[in-house]
Amino acid sequence: MTSPLQQKLKINGPVVVTANRLADGAVVYRGEGGWTTKLDSAAVTASAAVVQDLLAAARADGLHAVDAYVAPVQVTEDGGVRPGNLRERIRSSGPTIDLPLQALRAKVDHVPVR
Amino acid sequence: MYLYDELDRTLVGERVAEFRGQVARRLSGELNEDEFRPLRLMNGVYLQLHAYMLRISIPYGTLSSAQLRMLAHVARRYDRGYGHFTTRQNIQYHWIKLEELPDAMADLASVGMHGMQTSGNVVRNITTDQWAGVAPDEIEDPRIWAEVIRQHVTLHPEFSFMPRKFKIAVGTSRHDRAALRIHDMALQMHRNGAGETGFEVMVGGGLGRTAFIAKTIKPFLHKRDVLSYVEAVLRTYNQFGRRDNIYKARIKILVHELGAEAFAKEVEAEWQSIKDGPLALDEEVVADIASRFRYPAYARLQNSPAELAEAPGGDRRFEAWIGNSVAKHKVPGYAIVTLSLKPEGGTPGDVTAGQMDAIADVADRYSFGEIRVGHEQNLALPHVAQRDLPAVWRALNAIGVAIPNVNLITDIIACPGLDYCSLANARSIPIAQEITRRFRNLDLARDLGRLHVNISGCINACGHHHVGHIGILGVEKNGEEFYQITLGGKADENATLGTLIGPAVPYAQVADLVEDIAAAYIELRERPDELFIDTVKRTGVEPFRERVYAAR
Description:
The complex is a heterodimer of chains A (114) and B (552). Chain A is an alpha+beta fold. Chain A has helices spanning 48-60, 86-93, 100-104, and strands spanning 15-21, 27-31, 34-36, 65-75, 81-83.
């Protein structure tokens, strides 16, 4: 569908290269010379040539991360980096919903049958 | 329960060992991702937005208490303490680590569970009625036939690289509880004029970007011919199905483009060449498979025992639950209990490890150790003595799964959506959660009656939105989530695709719109007992559109 992996590369603003870590699937970003789990530490660029280099380096490193692609970001006034769309916000911060254990934390978890 | 034989146990054990080696070679770099991806997919391992996802099949929706406890263990040990039941009698874990997957799979294999046939272009987990073997309206247990087919197609080399995935469902009741007609192939049992039982064969159903209701290509197939005919359909699809375009590769497109009649002719020609060969089913073989399904030693009990006359402590919630979640059983004095996994503000189909353990305890004590999984993302206890219903209610109520909203507007089917899924365009779960909050008043929900809301976060339609009485499809417009609403779909024996009611609305308006649809229904229905789906059928969607979109 609209998986970024299936879309043509279009650079209309600042972007990063992102992927999932091989061992556990965690979201990672391409930083200077390697991967980082922190978006703030990612290499941000709006240059197609730099993106191509980042992507090539990311894809060459298939041992640490997989399915690399280019994701939009927003750079805040203080230089912080924020995900550029909802999909990337969810990848970066996790589901927008409470996970079941959080939702149920007020309840008794296991009631033995008497 | 079904007892796996030595062959099954060996197969599952060998698969774990094989996958352990594959994971080790991937982690060491010996295999690259292109080489590894198809191998992990053959074991139900997907890569989602945040983590790997492991999908485990629950053949014909039947679980033992030991298996449910193992699912709880896997949730605790390898995931984040919960699992998610899907719309195809599978369970998914959304936070599994690749490096721990072989251990998780070994644990699952110890109770005969695995991820085979939950991914890839193979015959997927064969689904059926979650009330199989206990439904009063059933001709015979559909699981026997699902198992006959499962044994034949599991890891069958000819059907391991089909044009696309292939989903089969089997039903033997008058009322279709397994959404047969939205499957690639469905077998519906009938009794013919001579009193013999056999199957109507339907093909080419499916949702996704091009939705079709399955078409009948064989009105009555004798049971001895089930395997040969299934094989003939699979071969015809394998030969003529498109491999050049993933969006046109499902059998529904082939059946649509060829026409059901022409497709049936191709199948017939293939079938004639194999029907009297080794695939003709020997009665003894079927009897042997049937004998591995074990039925409880039911006590001789009467319906409506005295224990039911008085609610526990006069609790009105118990009465509501009896009226909503408890169904007739084929054996006198017993009942089928549905466990709603649709709490207010919850995620449809999610269950915590603690709930799984508690449900396993209840099943052991009150349901002969057996649990069922339905495509509506709820569970069921299939063999509860009616006299035990008060105790069962107390136990289920204590863990939040005795919500009397089965088949009501808050019993929502929803895919994981953009909160988890890498294919999704929009979120499904928070939409479902908001609708459950809007209709938290059970009197209101009950007044609306039977009303199925189905939500998908993309056109792939895992949330079966086309066949929801109210269907909600998430789409993306200029980076924002929008939702298309359809009315009048249904997935039962009169399966119909819903009709679009109007332009897509933004995320924040979806629950309002569902409330407006509910209000329009109350205004439009002829009598309080005219079901929502019948009102839509009678009036069409136009009166709903006028009322719901007038102010928008």
